[in-house]
Amino acid sequence: MLLQLVFEDQWSIPVPMDDRLEEALGVQRERASRDEFDLAFLERLSECLANSLAACLDTDLQLPTDSQVKYAMDIARELGVSLPADALRFRGAAHEFIDRFKDSFRVSRERRRRMTSPTGG
Length: 121
Fold this sequence. Notes:
It is a single chain. By secondary structure, the protein is mainly α. It has 2 domains: about 5-55, no CATH class; about 65-115, no CATH class. About 65% of the residues lie in helices and about 10% in strands. The protein is built from 5 helices and 2 strands. Strands 1-2 form a two-stranded antiparallel ribbon. Strand 1 and strand 2 form a beta hairpin. Helix 1 packs antiparallel against helix 2 (about 40-55) and helix 3 (about 65-80) crosses helix 5. The longest helix has 26 residues, at about 90-115.
């Protein structure tokens, strides 16, 4: 059995399958059609493939970590700068934004902390 991923008819990626996987996929397909769970299986398969593809991307193109998003949002709020949409979509863009503003952010936070401390500095 040949399994391929086709992207907009521009490139095709063959997906290697050993005999055991091919057999199991055939049994799964039979179960799905016999038990009328075809839609549920297709949704599960689709989600698994999407997650696997995302994990294969270069690191800078993967989603930013939750920590990166929170830190970038804190920086934007503290410094009053706009947060580029790409910084919320791509790990590399988030890293660049954080790297660009992290020193100013630390200085601003420290200055604010000193101004609000009971001793005034």
